[in-house]
C-alpha cells in the first residue's frame, strides 16, 4: 500500500570541483561543523517522512560518515548515481525505489543553502495531492526561466544549455513537488523521445516538467516566493560566502 506521505529526494552527486572543496557540495561547511546537508536536513525533516540523498560513488562513503546519526535513525537513506548523467537519471534511477512508495516526492537540489523553511511548508500546504507544485520567484537575470500560459507550464529555458532567459522571468528555488502516481511511467515516455541538452548532452529534468504539463496534462500549482536569494545555490566561492553570511544572520 502506498504511503501518502512525502519523500524528499536530494540529488547531490556533484563533486564540487568549481569550489575546489575536494568533497561533494552537500558536505561543504557553511559554518563550523554546519554543512549544506545539515541546513537542508533541518528544512526537510519536519516536512518529509523520509529524506533520500543521491550521491556519486566517491561521495557515498564520506557522506555516510558525516550523516551517520541521521542514517541510523532510519529517516534518511542513500543511493549512488554511478555516472554523472544528469538530475533526471539521479531521480529516476536507483532512488526511485525509495520514493515510489510515497504519494508525494519533494525534489530539492543539494546546494540550496538559502531555501527557507517557510517555502518548504508553503509548497506542501499548497500541493493538492496531484500534479506538480512549483515555488517560483521573479529574477532580474534568471539562470532558468519558467514560461506559463493559461495555467500551463509551456516551456523551461535553461541558460546552461545555451537558451536565452528573459529579464524578470520566473525562476525556481531548487524545489519541485510532484505526485508520484504515474510519475515514473511519464518519465520513461519523456526520456524515450527527448532530445539531449545542447551543452550538457543530458536528458534534462526541468523540461520534463513542461512535458508533464503540456503532454501529460498534469495540473500546475505555483507558489510565489518573494526573496530571490532563495534561488541562489552554491556554485561559486561568491555563492558560498553569501550563504555563510546569511547563515550567520539567521542560523535556523
UniProtKB/TrEMBL annotation:
GO terms for molecular function: transferase activity. InterPro entries: GlmU-like, MobA-like_NTP_Trfase, Nucleotide-diphossugar_trans. SUPFAM superfamilies: Nucleotide-diphospho-sugar transferases. It catalyses: N-acetyl-alpha-D-glucosamine 1-phosphate + UTP + H(+) = UDP-N-acetyl-alpha-D-glucosamine + diphosphate; alpha-D-glucosamine 1-phosphate + acetyl-CoA = N-acetyl-alpha-D-glucosamine 1-phosphate + CoA + H(+). Keywords: Acyltransferase, Nucleotidyltransferase, Transferase. Residues 8-128 form the MobA-like NTP transferase domain. The keyword Cytoplasm does not apply. The keyword Nuclease does not apply. PANTHER family: BIFUNCTIONAL PROTEIN GLMU, NUCLEOTIDYL TRANSFERASE. In the N-terminal section; belongs to the N-acetylglucosamine-1-phosphate uridyltransferase family. In the C-terminal section; belongs to the transferase hexapeptide repeat family. Catalyzes the last two sequential reactions in the de novo biosynthetic pathway for UDP-N-acetylglucosamine (UDP-GlcNAc). The C-terminal domain catalyzes the transfer of acetyl group from acetyl coenzyme A to glucosamine-1-phosphate (GlcN-1-P) to produce N-acetylglucosamine-1-phosphate (GlcNAc-1-P), which is converted into UDP-GlcNAc by the transfer of uridine 5-monophosphate (from uridine 5-triphosphate), a reaction catalyzed by the N-terminal domain. This is NTP transferase domain-containing protein.
Amino acid at each position: 500500500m502506498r504511503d501518502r506521505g512525502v519523500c524528499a529526494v536530494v540529488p547531490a552527486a556533484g563533486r564540487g570541483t568549481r569550489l575546489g572543496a575536494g568533497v561533494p557540495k552537500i558536505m561543504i561547511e557553511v559554518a563550523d561543523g554546519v554543512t549544506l546537508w545539515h541546513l537542508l536536513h533541518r528544512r526537510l525533516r519536519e516536512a518529509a517522512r523520509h529524506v533520500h540523498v543521491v550521491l556519486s560513488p566517491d561521495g557515498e562513503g564520506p557522506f555516510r560518515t558525516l550523516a551517520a546519526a541521521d542514517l541510523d535513525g532510519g529517516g534518511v537513506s542513500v543511493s549512488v548515481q554511478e555516472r554523472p548523467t544528469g538530475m533526471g537519471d539521479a531521480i529516476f534511477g536507483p532512488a526511485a525505489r525509495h520514493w515510489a512508495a510515497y504519494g508525494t516526492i519533494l525534489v530539492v537540489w543539494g546546494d540550496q543553502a538559502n531555501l527557507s523553511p517557510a517555502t518548504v511548508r508553503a509548497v506542501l500546504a499548497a500541493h493538492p495531492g496531484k500534479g506538480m507544485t512549483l515555488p517560483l520567484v521573479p529574477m532580474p537575470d534568471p539562470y532558468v526561466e519558467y514560461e506559463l500560459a493559461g495555467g500551463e507550464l509551456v516551456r523551461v529555458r535553461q541558460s546552461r544549455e545555451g537558451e536565452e532567459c528573459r529579464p524578470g522571468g520566473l525562476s525556481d528555488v531548487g524545489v519541485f513537488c510532484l505526485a508520484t502516481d504515474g510519475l515514473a511511467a511519464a518519465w520513461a515516455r519523456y526520456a524515450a523521445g527527448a532530445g539531449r541538452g545542447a551543452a550538457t548532452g543530458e536528458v534534462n529534468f526541468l523540461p520534463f516538467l513542461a512535458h508533464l504539463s503540456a503532454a501529460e496534462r498534469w495540473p500546475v500549482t505555483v507558489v510565489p516566493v518573494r526573496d530571490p536569494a532563495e534561488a541562489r545555490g552554491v556554485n561559486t566561492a561568491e555563492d558560498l560566502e553569501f550563504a555563510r553570511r546569511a547563515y550567520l544572520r539567521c542560523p535556523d
